[in-house]
Amino acid sequence: MIGRTISHYQILAKLGEGGMGIVYQAEDLKLKRPVALKFLPPALTADSETKKRFIHEARTASSLQHSNICTIHDIDETDDGQVFIVMDCYQGMTLKERLAQGSMPTEEVVRIAVQIAAGLAEAHEKGIVHRDIKPANIMITDAGVVKILDFGLSKLAGHPGITRTGTTIGTPAYMAPEQAQGKESDCRTDIWSFGVVLFEMLSGRQPFAAEYDQAVLFSIVNEEPAEIGNFRADIPEHLIALCKQCLEKDKSPPIHGESAGMAENKRVAIHEKCV
């Protein structure tokens, strides 16, 4: 693939690969700028119906214009039917890579968390849910700007006909209880995943850990998260409280007349707490 020119994009290098496709660095030969091309797995666009749905989801995601969301420029396909998305290409590292470097100061955690929350707030305001918020889907540019990647793709993967009924979509350690049970997701699902990411940034660990994915999912549905204060002594109380509220298993909205901040037993609205 490297060295090929597809449409007006010349592929220069492979950037990464995951369950949702392969990403390449490329040059837009018309506009003379770097871009990233993400090629979707054939199984996700195997027939005309799923391909139409993918294009619809990608177009919806492309409507998100926010400094903390990766910009989508184009959707196209190769002569042999491979579908790809053209996105901004950023210099930096993923949050997953940053976590691998070691402990994060709370100031850095807050700076990143606020930007993630701002991006999610913009998406949720437009009725768009990510469904797979995790460190690998969060880019930190060299300038310190957070970019949320891969909006819209998880919804495509969860469409009937692409996965069997009851199959869970997402990354087990970051799934909300409703995802782990194969139930419908909404913006509160992203709030849970944000809570897992926040917990991991603060403690260097995940709140629900086990050797096997099924054990992780069982823990998410049936057990309380680990006490974050057991892993690090200097976490401010308000961040501990925010983690706990994001990881409330009851995702019900506040009762009439009750603000999200007052709903101590319900998943908190991070948009109000962080932004």
Which descriptors would you attach to this protein?
275 residues; alpha+beta; Phosphorylase Kinase, domain 1; 2 domains; 6-stranded antiparallel sheet; 3-stranded antiparallel sheet; 9 helices; 9 strands; 18% strand
Describe the overall structure.
The protein has 275 residues and is α+β, with helices and mostly antiparallel strands. The protein folds into two domains: 5-88, Phosphorylase Kinase, domain 1 (2-Layer Sandwich); 92-274, Transferase(Phosphotransferase), domain 1. The chain has nine helices and nine strands. It has helices at residues 48-62, 95-100, 106-125, 153-157, 177-180, 187-203, 213-222, 237-246, 270-274; strands at residues 5-6, 9-18, 21-28, 33-39, 72-77, 83-88, 92-94, 138-141, 146-148. The strands form two sheets. It has a six-stranded antiparallel beta sheet, covered by helices on one side. Strands 7-8-9 form a three-stranded antiparallel beta sheet. Strand 3 and strand 4 (33-39) form a beta hairpin. Helix 3 runs antiparallel to helix 6. The chain is globular, with a radius of gyration of 19 Å. The N and C termini lie far apart (41 Å).
Distance between the termini: 41 Å
Number of strands: 9
Helix/strand/pairing class, anyone? alpha+beta
Q: How would a crystallographer describe the biggest sheet?
A: 6 strands, antiparallel
Task: Indicate how many domains the architecture comprises.
Answer: 2
Molecular shape: globular
Q: Name the helicity range.
A: 25-40%
Top CATH class of the largest domain = Mainly Alpha
Topology:
Layout: E1 5-6, E2 9-18, E3 21-28, E4 33-39, H1 48-62, E5 72-77, E6 83-88, E7 92-94, H2 95-100, H3 106-125, E8 138-141, E9 146-148, H4 153-157, H5 177-180, H6 187-203, H7 213-222, H8 237-246, H9 270-274
